[in-house]
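Preliminary data (for renewal application), calcium ion complex.
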Amino acid sequence: MKKSILVISLAVLLLSCNKIDDNTPRKLEGEKAGGETTVFVKTSQAFGLPAANLSGESLDKHMEGDVAFGAQFVASPSPRNGGLGPIFNNNSCNGCHPSDGRASVPDNLNGMSGLFLKISVPGTDEHGGPTPVPGFGTQLQHQAIYGYQPEARMSVSYLEKRFSLADGTVVVLRKPVYSIVSPYIPLPANVLISARIGMPVFGLGLLEAIPENAILAHADPDDLNKDGISGKANQVWDPVSGTLKLGRFGWKAGTPSILVQSAGAYNEDMGLTNYLKPVESSVGQQNSDPNAVSPEVRREDLENVTFYSLTLGVPAGRDFDDPEVIAGHHIFEQINCSSCHVATFTTGTYAGIPEISNQKIYPYTDMLLHDMGDDLADNRQEFQADGNEWKTRPLWGIGLTALTSGHTSFLHDGRARNLTEAILWHGGEAEKSRNNFINLSTKDREALLRFMESL
Ligand code: HEC
Ligand code: HEC
Ligand SMILES: [Ca+2]
Ligand SMILES: [Ca+2]
Ligand SMILES: [Ca+2]
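Predicted structure:
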């Protein structure tokens, strides 16, 4: 008799537990943010490890790419890693993506750092991209090897913007305004400037492997469903196929692939010619090197460095069973952060790299462009991305930024000094979400931040 009562009450208990489970999961989904590539490491190296499922030849190739990513180039002639410049921004990939993470805003703006200015004049080039500034191109190189002159120097001033959160907390934001000083020849008056900072480079093969139609399914350029969010795909020039392709990488999704991004980085950021970008960025300028041989980077090194970014593992989510993290995730959805920071995709087949193919991933981005308002605008067009638009950033790994990078600067120019500032800069299509964030109770706001720290 007693026994059966116990059994019944146990059964009732189990049933009621199940019921609670239905509404509030005990553990958030998506701990393995990068599918089988996920690495379970919470150290300063968390962004820099090979995908967990990489082995054999793939791992060897990744390791060679790792060496190329860290290689510091010098001026020619040199027995190794020559060809830097004559004008450049930094001398290694790692210099701008330290520990495979994001660069910090430099104290010395004109030293080597992970920040540079993209430039152009109004209009578009023959492929619909930015129009080069005569004598300067589409990127400002503020460094030069011995005997050459940099294109110019940079300067910055700040505007302040004040927010009062509902609980009385006051946050003072700083908006950097960059300008170009000491140009080697006069600059046209109508030059457009967009400051960019190096961002993390892990998980990118997975993002490249998301099928195009899965991304386009989230696009709503004319906001037909009238929710105030109008994700738009960028269509950018792909020098490999010689066609326009879906833009996926860079802060405005201005490049179609990691290969094209890496070839451009060697060429513009470091002054290194390669098979995809065989002409020095300085050619045609008075400061170019007439004796340079092309290519300066071997095809193999470009391919390996590309493979490296494609196959870095994604760090796992942490504390996904913590009630505060679970509550924070709920708020993230409630105030519509999730309408742009889309939690999950499943990758398609990536030719030659089965490790990143067919993975369920949790990047928290829709890979689309959004109008983020006047305060974030650079007012410089990049293919279909207009002056107000930026690509939704993936949020995976963002909670490890302090640990991996020693700072917490976010957004395209690193202006936000922490997650709260990054959210407060959201305007345009994200203004409603931002205002909802401002109006959260202290407890709910802390839970939301705690959720992001867990990613
Ligand atoms: C001078 C600094 C600098 C150097 C050197 C540099 N990068 Fe970058 N990298 C950046 C910046 C800034 C961006 C964003 C560019 C944009 O928005 O168009 C970027 C973007 C990227 C991206 C796209 C990431 C994403 O999520 O969209 C990849 C991949 C990348 N870089 C790889 C490399 C590789 C490989 C090298 C070396 C061959 C390299 N970078 C060298 C600064 C640099
Ligand atoms: C309308 C689309 C949209 C909505 C809604 C949105 N975001 Fe964003 N988010 C973006 C874009 C685009 C960026 C990149 C902006 C930039 O770099 O200037 C971004 C950047 C961020 C960053 C900085 C990431 C980095 O790598 O620097 C964080 C953190 C962030 N969002 C969190 C949130 C949170 C939390 C919410 C909800 C309160 C939210 N976002 C709502 C589009 C959106
Ligand atoms: Ca060179
Ligand atoms: Ca230039
Ligand atoms: Ca919409």
